[in-house]
């Protein structure tokens, strides 16, 4: 089994792992999957455009999983596959239909609401279009996170009182917001409590390293704090 992740297109010194790849690495560590090769795909050098890669993955995206000829892209699909293949009886996917549905609802919310807003914020700064966090986008992000904070008034983890694949995906993103200077601790106390609870997860520090790298680069490009 091979798991391919990437460096950001800006260059090799930018960061090791972007959030989608870090989410999958968190699952790999949690599931204690040792028979997997973590392989770098250098998108900034066009390795994802090479014919052999495109044949396996026409999307040309990373992260990307190759499990002995079974090819899978999209981080959330990879999370589901790894959990189903390696721990089908665990709580990672929810043991009952309603719990499973909540996990997927949380993932869909992150993908469709939080992700696009965050992408706009980061893209505009890293591409040099602005040196501040756009106030309108920041308010939209805070609005989206308010709902997550509300989720966590009812459960210890993102979808229930147990760790699920949703926690891996959210942790990769929330940790990035924290290290980029978003006031998670003061504005979203339930998210912050959950974030502290996640310290017990295998791979937490590894994820923090990647998030910290992004945060340092991001803050270095700003002329005002995230929450100015």
UniProtKB/TrEMBL annotation:
Keyword presence, Transferase: yes
Subunit structure, interactors included: Homodimer.
Domain GST N-terminal stretches: 8-90
Protein name: glutathione transferase
Phylogenetic lineage: Eukaryota, Metazoa, Ecdysozoa, Arthropoda, Hexapoda
Any GO MF annotation of the entry: glutathione transferase activity
Any GO BP annotation: glutathione metabolic process
Keyword Cell inner membrane: no
Source domain of life: Eukaryota
Family according to the record: Belongs to the GST superfamily. Theta family.
Listed EC numbers: 2.5.1.18
Domain GST C-terminal stretches: 96-226
Keyword annotations: Transferase
Catalytic activity: RX + glutathione = an S-substituted glutathione + a halide anion + H(+)
């Amino acid at each position: 089994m091979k798991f391919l992740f990437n460096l950001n297109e800006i260059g090799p010194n930018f960061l090791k792992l972007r959030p989608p790849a870090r989410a999958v690495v968190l699952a790999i560590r949690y599931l204690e999957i040792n028979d997997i090769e973590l392989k770098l795909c250098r998108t900034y050098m066009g390795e994802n455009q090479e014919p052999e890669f495109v044949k396996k993955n026409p999307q040309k995206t990373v992260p990307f999983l190759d499990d002995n000829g079974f090819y899978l892209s999209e981080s959330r699909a990879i999370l589901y596959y790894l959990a189903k293949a390696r721990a089908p009886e665990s709580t990672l996917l929810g043991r009952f239909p309603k719990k499973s549905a909540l996990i997927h609802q949380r993932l869909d919310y992150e993908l469709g609401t939080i992700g696009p807003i965050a992408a706009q914020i980061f893209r505009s700064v890293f591409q040099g279009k602005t040196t501040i966090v756009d106030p309108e986008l920041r308010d939209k992000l805070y609005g989206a996170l308010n709902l997550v904070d509300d989720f966590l008034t009812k459960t210890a983890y993102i979808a229930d009182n147990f760790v699920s694949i949703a926690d891996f995906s959210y942790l990769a993103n929330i940790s990035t917001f924290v290290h980029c200077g978003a006031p998670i601790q003061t504005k979203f106390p339930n998210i912050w409590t959950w974030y502290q609870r996640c310290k017990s997860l295998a791979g937490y520090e590894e994820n923090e390293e990647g998030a910290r790298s992004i945060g340092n680069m991001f803050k270095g490009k700003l002329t005002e704090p995230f929450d100015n």
